[in-house]
Amino acid sequence: MSKAKIEIIGKAGNVDNPSDNAIVFKVSNGLGKLECAYGKPDSDDYAYKHLLLNGKPIVQGYCPTECPTCQGLLAAGYGTDNIDCKELDTVRSCLNGEYANPETAFEALKPFLNLLEDGFYALADIEYYPTDGNGRFFCSVPNSLAKNPAVCECYYNDYFSDVTDCVPLFLYPTQSADAINQKRVEYYIDLLKNNGNVRGFAYHQYGFVSALLDGHHKATAAAVLGKKIRCLTVIPLNEYCCSKIDTQTAEKIYFCNYEYTPIEPINIDQIFHRRKSFSSNKIVNFNLINADFSDLNRKASFYYPTVKEVSDMAELELFPNKIDDNSVLEWIENPTEENCLRLEYCIKTLLTDNPQKAGEITHKIICSNNPLLPIGYSQKMLNFIKSEHLI
Q1: Which residues, at least 6 apart from 42, have a Cβ–Cβ distance to it below 8 Å?
Q2: Structural domain spans, the chain
Q3: pTM of the model
């Protein structure tokens, strides 16, 4: 078997954040041990789509084939803790060592990247919410298929009658709940409190959701504290565009929200390969998740937005750098429906990074006595802030 060749071909820029770049690399003669495979479809609209590691499904999916705004279904797979994969050990060594950026990690990650299928990928350092995109702790997933609105190429927002393109934001477990050790979680809680280097490793595969390949203890620690978790993330190429003149050569290629302009022409035949089939055409119950995460689910519903709320915030152009005292005062004084939404989402956004400020805003809304403002929501959030001893 030929040795895999992994080479960096450039950098892709984040279309939403020009200062954020990802490495673009090409895999040739890859081992294909980490691969996406498709089962026999039940209809023309949906097909089984599984993420396999060493031939075993670590995430099981049933996803739309033609409708980009239709939600897919996911189920837990076979735990990576039960799969012999020495290459994952190299990932752990890399992430737990000194880390500066994807470039410095790339060489150390090569043994694992050799497992990929041939094609183009991006390696990005991405900040995630440790949830499934529906207000639940990321490990609180079913062993059987369940609908997940975050599993779509773009989320259709009913309120704004618009769509939000998918970006990697949420996580899905690939390790059994039994493998999570409380002492290890507490170790990372202390590290996070002291701003230590805490990163996971993920593979993007399903809309807004990435499979967490390593870092379950770290993501759990982040969820306990109501923080986000950074993960080095491998993103397969998912889109391309050609010029009007040359329809056989990709003018730009995309890895979710990362855009790359090839220096050398890339023929579109090189971009997407034939879909590999998977022998199973059903979901297998592996009983990966058998723990009670009710407390972390409750916290997640307060700390982190759902995919719908993420879409709302994008439509409202509500970004952390736009949340200032003058804007908040304007929203309170002019309680339109959209301004009330802005107030609710700015409270949730600030809860992770600046709970003191979130508490101040909730207090102002409650004291206003204006029935048009989200007083009930603010009271609920203020009670949570106090119960968590955040202020």
Answers
A1: 281
A2: 5-291, 316-387
A3: 0.93
